[in-house]
Automatic annotation (TrEMBL):
Coiled coil spans: none
Lineage: Eukaryota, Viridiplantae, Streptophyta, Embryophyta, Tracheophyta
Segments of skewed composition (Basic and acidic residues): 48-61
UniProt-recorded name of the protein: Branched-chain-amino-acid aminotransferase
Domain of life: Eukaryota
Length: 390
């Protein structure tokens, strides 16, 4: 990796260490909050695995960004009629799955990704959780799976976060990453939808991506490997969408780039998105982003940024954005729940590199602040996007 591709990683790593040091302190005196959900087994203080500071120390040093074994996961199974019920918390640990499960053999599975922040007053905030719930429903329909109702999904997320409350980093130190999964379970041999489905949630703390300021990333536009194709499943968080881009991502990293910017698979000319983030191009007072059309993942951050930008007086266009426009743009940034808003420092396309940011990343910075201030509860949430848990 080149020097300019590494800062965001090393900064993030530093933040991660800070989070863990904090968690280590927290874990010596904390308890697990009671779930208010009647459909779930109540977690009690004595259920909490007491991590020794030694084991946390070991994890901190060895795992970096890898998932941490938190206290609880949430599991809910479907019944024959496709409805979900009797969800409950379980101690974090391995799950049993039959070898012939549809998710293992045919990739019948969906992920979601969201975050919980701790406010300065100690309460915990979720950001638009019902949007994740309905996106899972859309994805489930495409993959012939039943999905939890929006209320079940949100309730399950709240229950899981509260049960793992001690893992929510202190305000300003990071967030709790929440990962809901929907899996085709039960035996299948031919390519056919699973007879049973499992909805699951696990959580893990993550550090702030941008402690000490936004760190622009360097992208390479990829015109051989494609992330999604028309008629495919690029617009949903199908689990199979991610292994297919690891090769392009690994090559990009080996060549000193931070990530890949994918182009459309038909013309190899229009921007699609980055591996797990949507992309925006700023020119004067106009912010353009690829229109959703089946190959773009409808990011909740994307949708929120569009609304924030419009409320700040920007003209926002959702349309085809060609790769040539990159060479004429003032700024480019990505959006996603992991990175919020991430400025792009350079893009390389067919050996040609365009750099951004001579005049600072004013627009990216402005939108990043506006969004994270709402998510972290630092400003009044006029949009009604956040949900206070406790
Ligand atoms: C999750 C994801 C995004 C970002 O979606 P958010 O809801 O903003 O987190 C963008 N692209 C892909 C491919 C994704 O999987």
């Amino acid at each position: 990796m080149t020097d300019d591709a590494t800062p965001s990683l090393s900064v993030s790593l530093a933040c991660w260490l800070v989070v863990h040091r904090q968690l280590q302190l927290a874990s010596t005196s904390s308890h697990v909050s009671l779930s208010s959900s009647s459909s779930c087994r109540r977690a009690t203080a004595s259920d909490a695995h007491s991590e020794t500071s030694e084991s946390l120390e070991r994890r901190r040093d060895s795992l970096g960004f890898n998932p941490v074994k938190t206290d609880y996961i949430y599991v809910m199974e479907s019944s024959e009629d496709g409805s979900f019920s009797n969800g409950n918390l379980r101690h974090y640990g391995n799950i049993e799955i039959i070898p012939s499960a549809a998710v293992l053999n045919y990739g019948q599975g969906i992920i979601e990704g969201m975050k919980a922040y701790r406010k300065q007053n100690g309460s915990i905030l979720l950001f638009r959780p019902e949007e994740n719930a309905s996106r899972m429903q859309v994805g489930a329909e495409r993959l012939c799976m039943p999905a939890p109702t929006i209320e079940q999904f949100v309730e399950a997320v709240i229950t899981t976060v509260l049960a793992n409350e001690r893992w929510v980093p202190p305000s300003d130190r990071g967030s709790l990453h929440i990962r809901p999964l929907l899996l085709g379970n039960g035996p299948v041999l031919s390519v056919t939808p699973a007879p049973e489905f499992t909805f699951m949630i696990y959580v893990t703390p993550v550090g702030n991506y941008f402690e000490g300021g936004l760190k622009p990333i360097n992208l390479v536009a990829e015109n051989v490997i494609h992330r999604a194709t028309p008629g495919g499943v690029g617009s949903i968080k199908a689990i199979g969408n991610y292994a297919g881009i690891m090769k392009a991502q690994a090559e990009a990293k080996a060549n000193g780039f931070s990530d890949v910017l994918y182009l459309d698979s038909v013309h190899n000319r229009y921007l699609e998105e980055v591996s797990t983030a949507n992309v925006f191009v700023v020119k004067d007072n106009t912010i353009s982003t690829p229109a959703l059309g089946g190959t773009i993942l409808p990011g909740i951050t994307r949708k929120s940024i569009i609304e924030i930008a419009q409320s700040q007086g920007f003209k926002v266009e959702e349309r085809l954005v060609s790769v040539e426009e990159l060479f004429d743009a003032d700024e480019v940034f990505c959006s996603g729940n992991a990175v919020c808003v991430m400025p792009v420092g350079s893009i390389t396309f067919m050996e040609e590199r365009v750099d951004y940011g001579e005049s600072g990343f004013v627009v990216s910075q402005q939108l990043y602040s506006a969004l994270t201030n709402i998510q972290m509860g630092l400003t009044e949430d006029k949009m009604g996007w956040t949900r206070v848990l406790n």
